[in-house]
Amino acid sequence: MGIPIYSPTIEVPLFQGYYDGLEAGELRITADAETGEWIWYPPEVVPGKPDAVLEWRKVSPEGRAYTFTTVTRSLLPGDHKAEVPFTVVLFEPDDAPGVRVPGILVDAEGVEPRCEMRLRFRPVQAGDHKIAGFAPAG
Amino acid sequence: MMKGNRIAITGVGETPFLRKGEESVLMMMARASLSAIADAGLTPADIDGYISNKYAGHGSDEVAHAIGAGEKRFCAIADSAGGTATTGQALQLAQMAIEAGLARHVLIPYAIRSTKPGGVYGVHAREPQKAGIEMPVGFFGQPTYFASMANRYAHEYGMTEEEQAAVPMTYRAWATLTPGAQRREPMDLDVYRQSPMIATPLRAADCCLTTDGGGAYVVSAVEEARDMPHPVVSVRGMGLGFTNWPQGILFTQTPSTFAFPGEVSARRAYEMADCDPKDMDFAQVYDGFTISALVQTEMLGLCEKGEAPRFYAAGHAKPGGRMPVNTSGGHMSGGYVPGINLIIEAVRQLRGQEGDRQVPDARLCAVAGLGGNSHSTTILARD
User: Fold this and answer.
1) Which residue among A43, A115, A126 places its CB closest to the CB of B151?
2) Chains A, B: CB contacts under 8 A, how many?
3) What mean pLDDT comes out for the span A65-87?
């Protein structure tokens, strides 16, 4: 299986905390600093609360796959033929139900991806940056 | 509540649907519009209302100029995506304008150049969440999003490869009977299996076509329509449904990623039309992908929830089936001019003009339009 190589466009400070987390080996998502409610993806305006402050918080590296797909023809702009196939999963951390973090399935040789499979976060290097990876667990 | 049977689609027209065309979007909009106006027995001078579409990229001023129209009295933009705008919201706006006396004949044009630089996915690359979080892990492009929905749907309701394949095979069977369809060669299971996989479980055959083409229709009051050239095809019911999930978040964060607001749009449309799904003679379903067609077939009430794969596999939607669906091949075999070719085909079927593929005694049709976070259901009726 391959790894997609596509540099993120980081709208500072919208996604910087996410990539800082990946570099630190942590999965971080945004929450309302006052209430602790997960607000994901980080929006330009927090729904109904334009003055709300978002902060990056670490979530559980354990979770499950809501769904997945194995990409055999990458639709990313540019030539990505050498990077396929790769499997994208939508990961739901155990302590943030309903929140989904997209990442690629790793360390899964011989494993058939499926919905609800248990996964563990493992960031992987993709060119000059890290991306979210998730390995089968349990 | 808006009343049914007040407006009618009085003219329809389209350009050829091509894999790669040479004409601009505005040129195709003009050609399709002039064809629809002529079909209605009108001239451009008779058009006084316009519903534009934010995705087409050309406002009513440009279209009116391009067709050599007369005085414009009303214009509006359908502020939703895909089929919701072209098959539902545009009609709602047209009815409002006509009933308010703001316009007499309203033109609804659309055209697409799928082969434009940047392709059809360029719009997604501009969403900050997609560019920032999804694209770096390769989660990009409609086939990828809808493939992930298909796997979840299969997990919840079950779907074999044969059942999945029955959807594009059904639409292809209709396309073989449609002279203007883009893909007319027969498709059986072996042919389907030769189609390249894009993102599991969706093959190219499970995806809408790449099309350069345009379509348009004219809306007039029912009373006017009775004095126009064709049998009256009235809008008997319309329903719109919306969610507040923006397009940049929609495909990953909604509680169920394939729960489009189609149940609510269908309920509103059937209520307005005072009829039920079982009254429909045929249907047109916005088939961006096999999975979206399956889910909307259920949302229209043509089969039970979770049973659409079996519905298609049983042949109910095929030529000769009890509920024909996408009778000109839909977007997957006919051509992808989002939503608009579905409504054109519905009108012609209801007029009884479709020759080899004519649905016998077609009087009522449900048209489903998907716009991601929005959905429309429109019930068209022949008087």
Assistant:
1) A115
2) 125
3) 93
* Contact at CB, A15 and B255, closer than 8 angstroms: no
B154 to chain A nearest CA, in Å? 9
Asked if A129's CB is within 8 angstroms of B144's CB, the reply is: no
**Paired tokens of B169:** 């095979």
Q: Do A40 and B253 touch (CB under 8 A)?
A: yes
Q: Find the residue in A nearest to B133 (Cα).
A: A8
Per-residue confidence (pLDDT) for residue A11, from 0 to 100: 66
- Residue A49 structural domain: 16-136
Query: pLDDT tens digits for B184-229?
Result: 999 999 999 999 999 999 999 999 999 999 999 999 999 999 999 9
Q: What is the bridge-based pairing of β-strands A54-58 and B197-199?
A: unpaired
Q: Name residue A30's beta-bridge partners.
A: A56
Total domains present in chain A: 1
CB < 8 Å to B136, chain A: 4, 6-8, 126, 129, 131
**A3 is a domain residue:** no
Per-residue CA distances from B149 to A98, B81, B122, B153, B280 (Å): 15, 19, 21, 6, 28
Residues B262, B257, A112, B306, CA torsion sign: negative
Phi and psi at residue B362, in whole multiples of 5°? Answer: -75, 120
- What is the distance between the alpha carbons of residues A10 and B28, in angstroms, rounded to a whole number? 38
Q: What is the DSSP letter of B325?
A: B
Residues B38-77: tens digit of each pLDDT: 999 999 999 999 999 989 999 999 999 999 999 999 999 9
This model of the complex carries an ipTM of: 0.96
Whole-angstrom Cα distance, residue A40 to residue B383? 50
pLDDT averaged over chain B? 96
Q: Please report the domains of chain B, with CATH numbers, ordered by start residue.
A: 7-116+209-382 (3.40.47.10)
- Pick from B271, B272, B261: nearest CA to B369: B261
- Please say whether the beta carbons of A65 and A111 come within 8 A: no
Chain B positions touching chain A (beta carbons under 8 Å): 118, 121, 125, 128-129, 131-141, 143-144, 147-152, 155, 196-202, 244, 246, 248-249, 252-253, 255, 257
**Domain presence at residue A31:** yes
Given a contact cutoff of 8 angstroms between Cβ atoms, the answer to whether B138 and A6 are in contact is yes
Q: Is residue B30 very low, low, confident or very high in pLDDT (cuts 50, 70, 90)?
A: very high
